Amino acid sequence: MQNRGRLLIACADQPGIVAAIAGFLFQSGANIVHSDQHSTDPWGGTFFLRTDFEMPNLPARAPELEREFQGRVADRFAMRWRLSLAARRKRLAIFVSREDHCLQELLWQQRSGDLIADITVVVSNHRRLQPVAERWGVPFQHVPVTPETRAEAERRERELLEGHVDAIVLARYMQILSEEFVAGWRERIINIHHSFLPAFVGAKPYQQAHDRGVKLIGATAHYVTEHLDQGPIIEQDVERVDHRCDVEDLKRIGRQIERVVLARAVRWHVEDRVLVHGNKTVVFA
Q: In angstroms, rounded to a whole number, what is the distance separating the alpha carbons of residues 90 and 263?
């Protein structure tokens, strides 16, 4: 993967985009190894593309390649784009509170090689999961949060993260981040919540679901925005339940879905498979 690059592109759809990109890569000595594309409407819609390519000595050539692509292709089509180097592993901070199922899943997938990223720190407003982080050899930072100390807590969190982390994963972190904090990490904070929202908002959602006799439960992973639990959805999944399930069964099944859905979303993010379009995403999974 040392010389593997990824181009992610969004622009107004029109003829000639793919030809221009492929021609530029060919003339630059690159070999396209995989490509996905999508158009919301071929006549007036938005075009999205993710292309994997190999190029000799890419890490050294990347700055020049970016400048040339901007001038020769991106400006012509008014593209929003970025070049990502596959060999540069993204650095993740995981925010947790008391529940460990999502944290354990991410740590296991990273250790097993399924999640190609570096988990650099676990941040928590409680100390309960410190032994979990330490058992996996990941630094743990306890940052208490109260209504009175929220601003100071976020200042401390920014100190820990800036320059050291590429994305934040809220793995059942039971605190609401301020608009100011979120603005500094646009499209780089991933959250997981039960898919009962907004039908079962507030306390004890699984109790509410049980009381209503739900037949499906699930989970949703999404990017965090200033609007609580309303950000662009990356991944969802559900499982069927029935009248035999009590509240504890629903919680157990919900935990299983949450950890899998969050891990998928994080993996797709670090592999540059997600493009945000308004309040939606295009996921080249």
A: 14
* Structural domain containing residue 20: 4-85
Question: Mind telling me the catalytic residues?
Answer: 229
- Count the domains in the chain: 2
Per-residue pLDDT of the chain (285 residues; tens, 9 = 90+): 899 999 999 999 999 999 999 999 999 999 999 999 999 999 999 999 999 999 999 999 999 999 999 999 999 999 999 999 999 999 999 999 999 999 999 999 999 999 999 999 999 999 999 999 999 999 999 999 999 999 999 999 999 999 999 999 999 999 999 999 999 999 999 999 988 766 787 788 889 989 999 999 999 999 999 998 889 999 999 999 999 999 999 999 999 999 999 999 999 999 999 999 999 999 999
Indicate whether 43 and 158 sit together in one domain: no
Residues 149 and 273 in one domain: yes
Out of 85, 105, 131, pick the residue that ends a domain.
Answer: 85
Instruction: Read off the tokens for 24.
Output: 């530029």
For residues 185 and 200, membership in a common domain is answered with yes
Note whether 102 and 68 are same-domain residues: no
